[in-house]
Design goal:
Helix content is 26%, strand content 25%. It has 473 residues and is of the alpha/beta class. Helix 1 packs across helix 10 and helix 5 packs across helix 10. Its EC number is 3.4.11.21.
C-alpha cells in the first residue's frame, strides 16, 4: 500500500467508486439511503430502533435514526457481552443552504426561495452556481403519512453575483447571508406566461383548519416541482426538509487523474470509508474468531455541534452499545468500554501551497501522503499517545502511511465528534482524516489515494484491534 503510486489501478478504482457514491449522496438522507443499500447487498439486516433485538454471533446488522444517521455492526463469532467494540465514525452532513419553512420571497420582478445557512460554509462559493434541491418530503397517505426522498437533479435555483462595477468594496466580498444569499427561482415574466403572475399578488391565506396544509408557505411553482418529484399533489405535502446543492458532479481531475473535485468531501469521505472499511474487513474469515463487535457509525448534525437525536452528542450510541451488551453481567457495558477503541474519521487540512504560513512548520499533511492523525493538546481532537500508538501498529500491519497534524499556536482549531464521544462514553479515541483543500467550500479538493488508504486502514483496524489492545501493557 505505501508503495502504490497515485496512478495505480487500485487507487483509481477505489476513488471512482467513491465519486459515484458521492454524486448520489446529495443530502444526509440520500447518503444514509445509499449506505443502507450497500449494507443490505452485503447481507446486513436492518433492526428497528423501537423493536426487540436478537443479536447473534457472526451476524451483521444496522439501525438508522431520522433517516439521516446510521450505525452498522458485525458481531464477532467469539463475541460475548462485556467484550469490546472497534468503532469508526464519520458524519453525513456538510455546510449548505436549506429551504426555510416559509420560503416565499420576491424582489425586483423575481421570485426567490428563502434559505437558511447550515454550518460554517464558505458562502461566497455558492454564488454563480447551478443549484438544485433534494431532501425528505412527508406526504399524506390516507390517515397516515409517508416519508419520500426527492432529488430534482436539474439546475433550478441561482444566486448571481453583483456586477463588480456596482461594488463599493471590490477587495472584500462578504455577502449578507440573510438578504444577499437568496436564490432566484423564476422571473415574473415567466410566471405570467404560465398563468402564475406573482406581481402585486396577495399571498393566499393559510388554512385555519388544517395545519398540515403548507401550500401558502411556498411559491406554487416551487412546491409543484417538489410534489412532482414526490409523486403527489402539492396539497398532500405535510412537511419538507430540503437542501440546496451544486449540480456540477464530482469528478476525478488533474493531468494525472490524481485529484477528486466535488462537494461534501467533508465528510462523505469519512462516512464512505468507515462503511467500506467495515465491509472489506468481512471479506475473509476473520470475523469467525473475533471477540469484538465491529461498528461503523455515521452521524448527522456534526457541522452544527452534534446536539440532536441523530447527532454524536445524543445518547443514541450509548443505547445501541448497551443493547449489544445485554446478556452479560450487570457491568458488561462498562467492561466493554475498557476493551474498545474509536476512530473519529473526519477530513483534515492539507498544507495549502498558496497559504504556506497558515500551517505549522513540522506538521504539513500532503496529498497522497497517507491518512492524517490529528493532535491537539487542548482536546479539540481526542487523540492520545496510547491511541496514536495503537493506530501506528494498525497502519504498519496494513502498510498504510500516516501523517500527523497540529495547528499553529496562533491559529484557531476545528473539532470533530471524537472528543464528544470520548467524553460521553469514556472511549479511547484517535482523530484522523484524509487530507483536503477548500474545506467547507461548495467545491472541495482532495487526492485519489486517500480513499483506498483510509479504507484499508479501517479494515485492518476492525480485524486486528482486539489483539493489538491485548498486546499493550
Amino acid at each position: 500500500m505505501a508503495a502504490l503510486k497515485p496512478s495505480a489501478p487500485e487507487i483509481r478504482k477505489a476513488a471512482q467508486e467513491f465519486v459515484s457514491y458521492l454524486n448520489k449522496a446529495v443530502t444526509p438522507f440520500h447518503a444514509t439511503q445509499e449506505l443502507k443499500e450497500r449494507l443490505v447487498q452485503a447481507g446486513f439486516q436492518e433492526l428497528p430502533e423501537s423493536g426487540h433485538w436478537d443479536i447473534q454471533p457472526k451476524s451483521k446488522y444496522f439501525v438508522t435514526k431520522n433517516r439521516s444517521a446510521i450505525l452498522a455492526f458485525a458481531v464477532g463469532g467469539a463475541y460475548k457481552p462485556g467484550n469490546g467494540f472497534s468503532i469508526v465514525v464519520g458524519h453525513t452532513d456538510s455546510p449548505c443552504l436549506r429551504v426555510k419553512p416559509i420560503s416565499r420571497q420576491k424582489s425586483d420582478k423575481f421570485l426567490q426561495v428563502g434559505v437558511s445557512i447550515y454550518g460554517g460554509g464558505i458562502w461566497r462559493t455558492w454564488f454563480d452556481r447551478d443549484l438544485s434541491v433534494a431532501g425528505l418530503v412527508i406526504v399524506k397517505n390516507g390517515d397516515g403519512m409517508l416519508h419520500k426522498l426527492i432529488n430534482v437533479k436539474k439546475p433550478v435555483l441561482f444566486i448571481p453575483n453583483l456586477a463588480i462595477h456596482l461594488e463599493t468594496d471590490r477587495a472584500n466580498f462578504k455577502p449578507n447571508t440573510e438578504t444577499e444569499l437568496r436564490p432566484i427561482l423564476e422571473s415574473f415574466a415567466a410566471a405570467e406566461i404560465n398563468g402564475q403572475n406573482q406581481n402585486n399578488k396577495e399571498e393566499p391565506p393559510k388554512s385555519e383548519y388544517d395545519p398540515r396544509n403548507i401550500v401558502s408557505n411556498h411559491h406554487p411553482q416551487f412546491l409543484g416541482l417538489i410534489a412532482e418529484e414526490a409523486g403527489c399533489k402539492p396539497e398532500d405535502i405535510v412537511d419538507l426538509d430540503l437542501y440546496l446543492y451544486d449540480t456540477n458532479p464530482a469528478a476525478i481531475v488533474g493531468i494525472r487523474d490524481e485529484f477528486i473535485s466535488g462537494a461534501r468531501l467533508d465528510n462523505q469521505v469519512g462516512t464512505y470509508t468507515a462503511i467500506t472499511g467495515l465491509l472489506e474487513s468481512l471479506a475473509g474469515d476473520s470475523l469467525q474468531s473475533d471477540e469484538q463487535i465491529r461498528m461503523a457509525a455515521c452521524f448527522d448534525n456534526e457541522e452544527v455541534g452534534s446536539s440532536s437525536a441523530m447527532g454524536a452528542s445524543s445518547s443514541f450510541t450509548e443505547y445501541v452499545l448497551r443493547r449489544l451488551s445485554v446478556g452479560g453481567t450487570s457491568t458488561a457495558f462498562e467492561e466493554a468500554i475498557g476493551k474498545s477503541m474509536l476512530i473519529s474519521a473526519d477530513q483534515a487540512h492539507a498544507a495549502h501551497p498558496n497559504y504556506s504560513v497558515k500551517h505549522e512548520e513540522n506538521h504539513r499533511p500532503a496529498f497522497h501522503g497517507g491518512v492524517v492523525v490529528k493532535v491537539n493538546v487542548n482536546q479539540k481532537y481526542a487523540t492520545t499517545s496510547t491511541t496514536h500508538a495503537a493506530l501506528k501498529q494498525v497502519a504498519f500491519e496494513a502498510q498504510v502511511p500516516l501523517q500527523v497534524m497540529i495547528v499553529r499556536n496562533d491559529s484557531p482549531c476545528g473539532s470533530t465528534v471524537g472528543p464528544l464521544l470520548a467524553t460521553k462514553l469514556g472511549l479511547q479515541t484517535v482523530d484522523v482524516g484524509c487530507p483536503q483543500l477548500a474545506m467547507h467550500s461548495i467545491r472541495e479538493f482532495a487526492d485519489t489515494s486517500s480513499i483506498l488508504q483510509a479504507t484499508t486502514l479501517y479494515s485492518k483496524f476492525y480485524q486486528r484491534l482486539s489483539a493489538i489492545l491485548s498486546g499493550m501493557q
